[in-house]
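Researcher: I'd like a structural prediction for the single chain below. Treat it as a standalone chain; there are no partners to consider.
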Amino acid sequence: MTAELSEREKIILDRLSAEGSVSVGALARDLGLSEVTIRGDLRALEDKGWLNRKWGGAAAAIHRDILERQRIFPEKKNAIARAAAELVRNGDVIMIEAGTTTALIARYLAGKRDVHIVTNSTLVFSYARMYPNLQITMTGGEFRRPTESLVGPIALETVGHLNVRLAFVGTDGFTLERGMTTHLMEGAEIVRAMKSHAETTVLVADSSKYGKIGFASVLPLSAMDLILTDGDLEYRAEEELREKGIAVQKVM
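Model: Treating it as a single chain, here is the predicted structure.
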């Protein structure tokens, strides 16, 4: 998504990420542009779901943490999401767990037919709702703003009643020793539930996550049927994973 933004729009989002809101007057002054031009930029960003316009400016539509994560390695994340979407068949029922990379998968399902998405991610919903060929089931549950996710007993109950062919999950870090880890305990529960109700589970994570360890353990890497990552995953790390029988696909 970030890759589709103009340089000026990226500057505006940088300000939003740092300050939470922006004013038309300040942006016009700092960028040397007219207020009419800035209002046009804010209108375009609102249409893309990045912000909500208000009198005299705009506020971020999503949590600052999400804005910050979306701006990191956008090309890698989009490449991974595109490869994940290629695994989806027409008529599939899939689960997509909350995350900035996992959410992008929905954008690349535009050409598929009759795909049903089950998700606990409001980001996935914001992307998928644009495509009439995608059916969406939201899990319900308690909303967590820092991750744009729905978690808790209601979300787990929904996932527990459904069965799908593919589940796409993310992680805050993954290592051979500790497996997949996350900073949110409730997120770990969702991943485990999706794994239990999918025929095939795919971890989508950029290479910067390898070697990082989050607060809560989720699942061993051996529980994943495939790890989709980018071409910057070190050769040694890739070989270590393969030696343990873990399937890895690197995308460019």
